[in-house]
């Protein structure tokens, strides 16, 4: 990776500056929990409320960083403490399984008690890496318990799971994509046939329901039987998720036994066709199937997913042009989203005129940036 200065700089910057900033500034030492994010000036979020998905993702980041030997000292202890406190809320009232959507970490009270598929996908990912970072059997047991809870609480017809314990419509591909991510992580960690089978089922759902062959786009919103229609908002496309599927399918190749590079190339090409803002290397947050912006913004996380898609396609095809694209996008990221901010943080959102419109520094973006670093670490080790 010596010829890719921006990629190298981003990796070292994240490990040396970003991780230490977030383990110190975004962890509440009194209550033992990670925050939803930081205020725009880099100070602590005063709300005291955190979503399960956010807390679980930050736990994941520091557990994975520990396993790879790049975490700041004391990170794993804080991650374990945060997850223990999150787990303490996972059995409330008359419901006996699953994690609530959000909690007040200052009081220990549940803020939103509904069980949500997205949250459980993030919990699974956190548990997978806690188990690997610590070697503790208790986390392996919690993985099994969480999968059982998902199957019991969120069962739904026509494949996949329900959106949440309310059976909310529209159904979305996004939580299923993150379940795919978590079962891939489990397969990579343990090579258990059950986990590989789950990942394969979710890939099948992608091919049969989520990916629209007629338009080469990823549909986001569906009816109860995975049907598309204007009533469900099915015409709205998120290019960042298309890029994210390129990354995940690239990981699934190992388990599929097939060359899927032509599929990922098709997805990536159309990601850029419908989603890249003209005159920039950046993806727009949301467009129509025809590439007309339906949101006048571009957040940080889709750019991180596009970098990963480029790196994935370079690995699958051996074409170094994709690494050049990743290098150019990372250079632009360093000059915009990661510039003129409090130390170790970011400007999370710009409008399409290039003006920062971020009002906070969300911790959720830490996860997206970290997964880029993971790809760069793998590149270094090849």
TrEMBL record:
GO terms (molecular function) for this protein are: isomerase activity
Keywords, alphabetical: Isomerase
Coiled-coil ranges from the UniProt annotation: none
Q: Which Gene3D superfamilies match?
A: 1.50.10.10
Recorded hits in SUPFAM superfamilies, A to Z, give: Six-hairpin glycosidases
Any stretches that span the bilayer, and where are they? none
Q: Which residue positions does the secretion signal occupy?
A: none
**One Pfam family from the record:** GlcNAc_2-epim
Q: Which GO terms describe its biological process?
A: carbohydrate metabolic process
The record's family statement is: Belongs to the N-acylglucosamine 2-epimerase family.
Question: What name goes with this protein?
Answer: Mannose-6-phosphate isomerase
Species in which this protein is naturally found: Rhizobium hainanense
The record lists the lineage as: Bacteria, Pseudomonadati, Pseudomonadota, Alphaproteobacteria, Hyphomicrobiales
